[in-house]
From TrEMBL:
Coiled coil: none annotated. Residues 937-961 are annotated as: Disordered. Residues 948-961 have a biased composition (Polar residues). This is Extracellular nuclease. InterPro entries: PbH1 (IPR006626), Pectin_lyase_fold/virulence (IPR011050).
Length: 961
């Protein structure tokens, strides 16, 4: 029987490399080069090989015989057809570029993409501009499993060249359980010491270690448009920017350029370094996600203030960090910032992560700012489960530092035991930043700056916006020599504390054991608890130790509503301390159990006479004029020998005097001082400034100004509301400053400064009579009175110095607007009573007379700052321990302006040897109404109230029990 020939069948080529020689020769052996060429060409290269598979679905394979030595290539091997390469019978196999060429280049020869799988082999000593060991072309795929890439070099100088071990030029690379170690991108701007990714890269398991690149990405560089996924990968000891060749050296382990994206899950990123930024990771404008990863021991060494990010640097992209541990990293450049994380812009979210650790050695450090985190712009959100602890900053922001206009939100995060050498142990917020603390705890942080403006153990707000809601601010310390604000220091910014916030057990050496607010700041506190804080009380050091709970410095403005201030201690102001220029309002708050040498509950400081400050004015009409208006007075010191007083008046409703020849409206600052109201007019003597020399002829101390009343004939006014003593008489007080245009300063013979012995009003009238004042130009005769004039006093001129000093104290002065017609009979009676001491009325012939002295409106000059207002509060069981008679005020110690209404002041004590004013010690201006002052005690005097001889105390409907 004749047999039929069988049809030839195609069998996939399976090449076994059994020689280490890099040859193409008919020698009875198969070299790696022969196998790859046969697979690529689908023809038998020689008798030793068979043709490879011609279809994309049939993949050839290459394996290695056991016992082969290293294969040293003479030139690059290009793979143009899909291929699987594995060890086969060999336990290991090295393929080397012999430091002369790349090892593999994967490029398609036709339309079909190439897919290459390598497993088990070691590729080493390859050299190329990009991809020292492997180059993957656009659209091609490579899978590495248990592969080692080591000792390979990429020499390309451009920023988009590199990949010491592997360059993925738009392909898809998957790496599993492989080792990429000791590779270099040493070109001038070479990137990606281990891998350069311009496509899609997925790495699972294994390690990428000890690689280096001059420009960026010591381990991996991924470019714009790329995608990088790392799962459970160890990345350690990679270097971006080696000494001497850094250009600039960003992203020690991984650098993402442009809008490339990275997803990192699990794994460890440790002990990597960057010459400039991002010791571990560096993200540009793309999206980087880090989940469950450990980042430790990474270092960024850039010297500039915007360099750093020991573990992660985010340059405007979207960064999300979850369930991560970021500890022991450093920004060690001269001004390096962001020991763990630095974000210049973009959106950063941190969830349930540890930034720092339980002990100081686990903390992150920065030489300048942001021991844990530094952010400039964009947003930063820290969510529940995030713990930022034991980090250190060489200047500011031990836990977190915000430099620019960033919007920072902390939701239930913990900031504990962080340290800043100067300011903001926990947080530091910039002048343009917004920071919101929603819940969480800020505890045991330390700020160690020695200056009075340093501190903020828990939080420091440098002029920005800081909101604290339902948070715990506790056990923080400002331990510098004059450190202030143990819990919070608000330096010229806006601070709002609300909800069930607790500020407790904080301490500062100088001021504000709980909270310090400075000049230019605005602070509102609602329903908070401020308790057990210390200012200058052991273990703090008194320098001097003011405001145990809260200290208001400069012209800071503070409003406290509800809540409580309890158990705080200080040298002055155990609970609250307000400066001579500050403003403190307390509404519905309990101030209890606080202790100080002076002012156990509240201390209101004394302003030096005519110190720099602001005053407000609200005009009340007189004599039925219906005049109303507002104004302000501002005292400033341009130099040591110059003082300025700016007076602003905006009033309306005045009589139109345009039909009365020569009639004018004028305004003066008057003084009100005590005389004997029961003595006849001519027996009372001159007022203290009537002699023009600042004397005190009647010897009585000043009292409150008096606004004349139509209904009150008390020796100060007569029934029609005119002042009994008119201008320049003692009881109402003389004119102490004529409010006119600065043109007055040029009027002869003596300008606006009256000579010694001449009262200001007399001098003013003499100038007007001599024609040295253009009344029409300087004084309005319409229905509005608008003035904004600054009066400058040269303190080296005796007349000007005297006139300036006569203004003191402005809090006991008032501004009066003058000029209207009155009944002629009343005018004549006034002329008779004045006996020529004031300008007479001008009979208009119609039963009325015009009087330039007739007052039409008055405004008290009220300190806007240097004032404490207390409403609906309870001030109880506070103690002042000072032994001197001036060191009392168990409840309140006031040397400024104090207003109290609807308040209970009870159970307070001035316990010192000569302690005075158990409830209130007053050496300033105090107005108390509709309040109860009861059960207070003092060892020396004033169980309820001690009022010194220079004080003014007004009680209305006050129960003294």
């Amino acid at each position: 029987m004749i047999g039929e020939r069988l049809e030839e069948r195609r069998v996939l080529a399976a090449y076994v490399v059994d020689t280490a020689l890099d040859v193409v020769a008919e020698d009875g052996m198969v070299s790696l080069r022969e196998a790859i060429q046969a697979s690529n060409s689908n023809i038998a290269i020689n008798a030793d090989t068979e043709a490879g598979s011609p279809t994309s679905t049939e993949i050839d394979s290459i394996s290695f015989a056991d016992g082969l030595s290293s294969i040293l290539l003479g030139s690059e091997l290009e793979i143009t057809e899909s291929l699987r390469m594995s060890l086969g019978d060999s336990s290991s196999q090295i393929v080397s570029g012999d430091n002369a060429s790349r090892i593999f280049a994967i490029n398609a020869s036709g339309d079909d993409a190439v897919s290459v799988d390598l497993s088990g082999v070691t590729l080493r000593d390859g050299v190329a501009e990009s991809g020292g060991a492997i180059y993957v072309g656009s659209g091609q795929s490579l899978s590495l499993t248990n592969v080692t890439l080591t000792g390979n070099i990429a020499t390309g100088d451009d920023a988009d060249m590199g990949g010491g071990a592997l360059a993925n030029d738009g392909g898809n690379v998957t790496i599993d359980d492989s080792t990429i170690v000791g590779n270099i991108a040493n070109g001038a701007s070479g990137s990606g010491g281990g891998i350069l990714n311009l496509g899609t890269l997925t790495v699972s398991g294994g390690e990428i270690s000890d690689n280096s690149a001059n420009r960026a990405g010591g381990g991996i560089e991924a470019t714009a448009g790329s995608s990088t996924t790392l799962t459970d990968v160890l990345m350690e000891l990679n270097v971006a920017g080696p000494d001497g060749s850094a250009a600039p050296g960003n992203g020690g382990a991984l650098h993402i350029s442009g809008d490339g994206n990275a997803d990192i899950s699990g794994g460890t990123i440790r002990d990597n370094t960057a010459a400039r930024e991002g010791g571990g990771l560096w993200n540009n404008t793309g999206t980087m996600t880090v989940d469950g990863t450990i980042l430790t021991g990474n270092v960024a060494s850039g010297d500039a203030a915007d360099d750093g990010g020991g573990a992660i640097f985010n340059n405007g992209g979207t960064l999300t960090v979850s369930n991560a541990t970021i500890s022991g990293n450093a920004a060690d450049g001269a001004l390096g910032s962001g020991g763990a994380i630095f974000s210049t812009d973009g959106a950063v979210t941190i969830n349930s992560s540890q930034i720092g650790g339980a002990i100081p050695s686990e903390g992150n450090t920065a030489n300048r700012a942001g021991g844990g985190i530094e952010v400039i712009d964009g947003t930063l959100t820290l969510n529940f489960g995030t713990d930022v602890s034991n980090n250190f900053a060489g200047i500011n922001g031990g836990g977190l530092h915000s430099t620019g206009a960033a919007n920072v939100t902390s939701n239930l995060a913990i900031f504990g035991s962080n340290t800043a050498a100067s300011e903001g142990g926990g947080f530091w917020n910039s002048s343009t930043g917004t920071m919101t603390i929603n819940g969480g705890a800020i505890t045991s942080n330390v700020a160690s700056g020695d200056d009075a403006s340093n501190g903020g153990g828990g939080l420091f707000n440098d002029g920005g916006t800081l909101n604290v809601i339902d948070a715990v601010i506790g056990f923080n310390i400002a331990d510098g020599v004059s450190g202030s604000g143990g819990g919070i220091l608000n330096d010229g910014g806006s601070l709002a504390i609300s909800g069930n916030t607790s500020v407790s057990n904080n301490r500062a050496n100088r001021a504000g054991g709980g909270i310090e607010v400075t000049g230019g700041s605005t602070t509102t506190i609602a329903d908070a608890s401020i308790s057990s804080n210390l200012a200058g009380v052991s273990p703090a050091v008194a320098t001097p130790g003011n405001g145990g709970g809260l200290h208001v410095g400069g012209d800071g403005v503070v409003t406290i509503t509800g809540g409580s201030v309890t158990g705080n201690e200080a040298i002055e102001g155990g609970g609250l301390w307000n400066s001579a220029a500050g403003s403190l309002t307390i509404d519905g708050t309990t101030v209890s159990g606080n202790t100080a040498v002076e002012g156990g509950g509240v201390y209101n400081d004394e302003a030096a006479a005519l110190s720099d400050q602001m005053f407000s004015m609200t005009f009340e009409s007189l004599n039925g004029s219906d005049v109303s208006g507002t104004g302000m007075v501002i005292v400033q010191s341009p130099s040591e020998t110059t003082r300025t007083v700016r007076v602003v008046i905006d009033a309306e409703g005045l009589q139109d005097l345009s039909g009365i020849p020569g009639a004018i409206h004028v305004a003066h600052i008057h003084g009100q001082f005590a005389g004997n109201a029961n003595l006849p007019i001519l027996s009372q003597g001159d007022g203290p400034f009537f002699d023009g020399a600042g004397g005190a002829a009647n010897g009585f101390p000043p009292v409150n100004s008096v606004a004349p009343s139509l209904a009150n004939d008390d020796g100060r006014t007569i029934a029609d509301g005119f002042l009994d003593f008119l201008e320049g008489r003692p009881q109402y007080g003389p004119v102490v400053l004529n409010l006119t245009s600065t043109q007055m300063r040029d009027a002869g013979p003596n300008g606006s400064n009256p000579p010694d012995g001449v009262p200001p009003l007399s001098h003013f009238l003499a100038l007007a009579g001599a024609g040295d004042i253009d009344a029409a130009a300087l004084f309005p005769n319409g229905t509005e009175f608008n003035l904004d004039t600054t009066y400058t006093f040269d303190l080296t001129n005796a007349d000007e110095e005297r006139q300036f000093n006569n203004l003191a104290p402005l809090g006991l002065r008032e501004v009066v607007l003058h000029g209207q017609t009155v009944d002629t009979a009343i005018s004549d009676a006034i002329d008779a009573a004045a006996m020529g001491t004031a300008p007479g009325g001008v009979d208009l012939g119609d039963g009325t007379s015009f009087r330039v002295t007739a007052p039409v409106a008055v405004a008290l000059i009220t300190p806007v700052s240097g004032s404490v207002t207390i409403t609906n509060a309870t001030i109880t069981n506070n103690t002042a321990t000072g032994d001197d008679a001036t060191e009392g005020g168990g409840g309140i110690h006031n040397s400024g302006s104090l207003s109290v209404s609807d308040t209970e002041i009870s159970g307070n004590t001035a316990s010192g040897a000569a302690g005075s004013g158990g409830g209130i010690w007053n050496a300033g201006i105090a107005s108390i109404q509709d309040s109860e002052i009861s059960g207070n005690t003092a060892n020396r005097a004033g169980g309820g109230i001690e009022a010194t001889e220079t004080s003014s105390t007004s009680l209305t409907d006050v129960n003294l029990d």
